[in-house]
Amino acid sequence: MSATQTQPNIKSRDQRFTNLQRTLVLIKPDAVQRGLVGQIVGRFEARGINLVGLKLVQLDAQKAAKLYEPHVGRPFYEGLVSYMTSGPIVALCLEGVDTITVVRKMMGATKPSEAEPGTIRGDFAQRVDFNIVHGSDAPESAARELPIFFSNEELVSHDPSYTFFL
Description:
This protein is of the alpha+beta class. It has helices at 13-16, 29-33, 37-46, 61-67, 77-84, 99-107, 120-124, 139-149; strands at 20-27, 50-57, 89-97, 133-135.
């Protein structure tokens, strides 16, 4: 039983959840500069996605290149690295059931003009090159991206009390 569990009849975390995933979300420089961090994090928390890591960082060119390595050679690559290193970002590690898919839906389409109202990009993004957030698009991407920003010691899995009812 975890430290936050108070009732002996509550099943362990592993018994309550299947397909528990972790994903990386980056709140990009435009969102940080516009003061949107709290609203964005709040949406994930309100959805019941568990926050297991969070930090404000100034991304350097080496880490940005490692993050966006799959895009090397594409026309937008240089501008993307320049943009991501232009100001502070907030790195999040989120955990939950099918979290990668859920987070991607919450973020909305990459192009703000195609993002549905109610999604993060639909509500806040203004341009495709300043589109507020980055999120891992697959478990393999999350496994590659998370260690760029977080060591295992920096990630804290926990059982929020609301999960006892899930």
